[in-house]
Design goal:
alpha+beta; two-stranded antiparallel sheet; 23 helices; 4-stranded mixed sheet; 2-methylcitrate dehydratase PrpD; 8% strand; 450 residues; globular
Length: 450
Amino acid sequence: MALSALSDHLTHIKFDDLPEATVEKTKLAILNFLGGSLPGADADAVLSEKRIWEEQGCTGACVVIGHRGGTAPLAAAAVNAAMGQVFLQEDCHEASLSHPGVAVIPVVLAVGQAKKASGRAVAEAVVSGYEAQGRIGKCLMTPEFPQNGLRPASFFAPFGAAAGAARMLGLDAEGMLRALSIAANTAAGVMEFVNVGTPDICVQNCFAAKNGMTAACMAANGLSGARTILEGRFGLGSALPGGACNRDALTARGGYEIDETFIKVHPGCGHVLPTAQAAESLVRRGLFDPREVERVTVGVSKGGGTFPGVDNGGPYTGTISAMMSHQFMVSAAFVRGAVGIPAVKAFADPEINAFARKVFVILDEEVERASRSHRVGARVTATLKDGRTVSAYQEDTPAQTREGVVTRVKDFGRAYFSDARLEKILDAAARLPELRDINALMDLFEPDLA
């Protein structure tokens, strides 16, 4: 049974065995999720989910990031998961085309708050969740997956959430196996939102967190799912496009999946991040006035040009359709000077939309060759009205640094927290392994400003 060995591995991940680099990566992932989610705290999808729980009379001690008053663990996990991807500043696991942090971390933190878990236990659960999502993603991923409209991130996220919750609940290998097999029945989500700009992506995260956490709770109560749900005749491997089930990916030796992730620098789909970087570098060089631009090409790999939503010249009907688009990345950089949340919020800006119509996505053979070595790059070339061309090549996707994450937390946190509170947040996050109760960190994310 494909899940048995993985389940055993997940339940034996111990903090003391984790390399220092993995611990630091885990701490940074948690901090980025908490701070990077704040700009989405007032988004419609987030407020809608929060109201649902309030209307059900749900109360508790778990924190909804950037909001006052506590709620129950399942509610907190759901609302925070929706918040985590409003502006697409999450982390990426390229091999599974998914974003483990936005499902695993809110679930682990919510259950951890309820259990008053230590920082070390939280770290073990987060690493376990990333392992489950990354390995099962590798097991089932095929090139046909996104091209058929299925969203990898939402399909694999319930596994990550279930594994993280199972660790927090103290389940053994048998319990973990039950949790993952139940969670497999909830794998869902399609990419049509890229064409209409709706916030389905946030709703999918919300469902993944709820479903994964519920699966773990069901497993804790003795419920079982099909043990052969990945490789069986009617399992996910057979049901999904391509019919793949690479069992070796579940048990391959090596490092931890969280070490294979990177945190985004820009708000946007992973495929368009190199485009944003290249476009910004052209602007910074100051070699031309953007008003002189006649045409821009974005040279990408085959995958980078055909992923749903990335070749979209507008008009943009929402922030999500904008953040998925190569054309928007170039337009935001050239018109606004930078690709950031203010530019994304201005997705309907007539000037940005007009400029986007001058931007065209093409296949670049050098970028395509680099993609075979797992580098995701882009070449942005602007042709000016006087016939000159200027170009910038970004060889691979840029990754946010620790300093960048700290700046992100401070910049976004100032709308909710005093400077003194922000320093306490950063200190508690840095001392995660020393925390005897994760509430020492989470309670700081209730605003202290009027």
